[in-house]
Amino acid sequence: MKYGSEKRNLCLFFIMAFAWSWLLWLPEVLWDLRLYLAPFGPTIAAFILTYMSEGLDGTKRLLGRGLDFRFGKVWLIPIFLLMPAIVGFSLLLAILSGEPAPEIAVLSQPWVIIPAFFYILFLGGPVEEEFGWRGYALDRLQMYYNALISSVIIGIIWGLWHLPLFFMPRQEMYYNVPIWGFILGTVLFSIIFTWVYNNTGKSILAVLLLHTTGNLSHFIFPLNTTKLGGLYSLILNIIVVIIILIIWGPEKMTRTQKKRLKIEDST
């Protein structure tokens, strides 16, 4: 693989992802006219660049990584439970701090969780973004930097990519969040996503599911209706990231890498 060309492709990816999404988000910012293809910028950029450099076979491989379930099933535990635990516990802490308990609508209609899961998977962020952020950009960044630095770079860019949403009339969720706090959050999420991605053999499907459960958690637990819930969530994410870096290390964020380093040190 030619590293120089991959660095160029990485720059092209970010330019294309931003150009596609920001241009198609502009009508919603100006006239409240939603174009549903706008968030697909990262995934579309990834597939276009993959086809240009690797042809149809490379494009099929990229798509296949989003369907491949061959990773350690123990990782389904953090994939499906970590984000709901963080968001749910953050809401509980906000309530224990004296805030009124918000209505959790799904308690009366739990069946809506399944259709909500699939709606979020395909139209709520994961499929629109993860083939790009993790499946394309993260792989190339990790050619030059360790897992932690690569995650921070993507986290900052990922956060900045969302900026137009802060100016859209129907995106109430972003009105109550300071931009700096949101970007800090995407950096922390990016580290967690890299941890899962690297430990599942760079499975795009794994991060698709993780992204879905993360967004679904906010659908189930209305954290943004509280004043302190976001702060508690930020603190809990920082704690999780610190634990990940201590146990798995910043280089690859995998236990295999940690074991290999211990063996080298002992010799």
TrEMBL record:
One of its GO terms (biological process) is proteolysis. It comes from the Archaea. GO terms for molecular function: endopeptidase activity; metallopeptidase activity. The chain crosses the membrane at residues 9-27, 33-53, 74-98, 104-122, 143-161, 173-197, 204-223, 229-250. Pfam families: Rce1-like. Keywords: Hydrolase, Membrane, Metalloprotease, Protease, Transmembrane, Transmembrane helix. Residues 115-216 form the CAAX prenyl protease 2/Lysostaphin resistance protein A-like domain. InterPro entries: MmRce1-like (IPR042150), Rce1/LyrA-like_dom (IPR003675). PANTHER family: PROTEASE, PROTEASE-RELATED. This is CPBP family intramembrane metalloprotease. It comes from Methanothermobacter tenebrarum.
